[in-house]
Amino acid sequence: MRRLNTLIIIILSIGIMVSACGEGTDKSETSEVTIYISDTQTVSLDIKKPSLLSSAKYFIKNLIALNEASAIPAGITDVRYTVSGSGMSAITGVASVANDAVKIVLYIPNGPQRHFVLDARYANSCVRYRGTTDVDLNGRPMTLNVSMALVSADLCPSNAANSGIDITFTINNSGNIAVSNVLYYVQYQVGGLDSCARGTAGVSAPIPADGSVAAGATLIYPTSNNYRIIIDPVNSITETDESNNEICSGTFCTSPPPLSIC
Q1: What CA–CA distance (Å, rounded) separates 257 from 262?
Q2: Which DSSP category does 157 fall into?
Q3: Do 117 and 200 have their domain in common?
């Protein structure tokens, strides 16, 4: 599986809240977690305790070289994050990509096996890259590198939330004989990647000579598109050269659609 070179840097530090008078027991313990994604080769990271009611503060500045770092891929508009674990309520949210970088600051209750899920998404909310890690938060500062792996497009939202768009067009038979089983393909883009839909006309009845038939396709999750319609009469007697046909390769669109390259 291909991996996205962009790294997610997770910085953890402990902050303990105490009473203003300093007489009470610890009421809660949290770790300040900074998630930083960037296209730069070197990142300046700040690690500090949350000050809250405590006067104890410290500041550590560290330069970390990211030899494998690269630009956030084109089309990625936000990063969805989820943090879960025993004894805590799940923390979820979405951070937008701004100037090719994402920075998220969270306060996570300390405890074992805090599970982080980070999804890099297109504008249509389809997840294209995912990274996960488990961290024990116990007050010890640490730095983690999380690789983002390419995922399939079946992580798109369901059709119940995204009904897609229906387009219609007419297929004209300009030949002198009727034709059946005419394949058609509609090429379009989802999140900057090529995809396609297909259908067959003239199945229940042939398209008569000099006649026409209505056709259409449902395009899933389009944002802005130019649609290219390709007609293939298959092995019709009116076609003499099958080699000039243009069709989409790979898996055709299903529900949810794979992002096939056409």
Answers
A1: 13
A2: P
A3: no
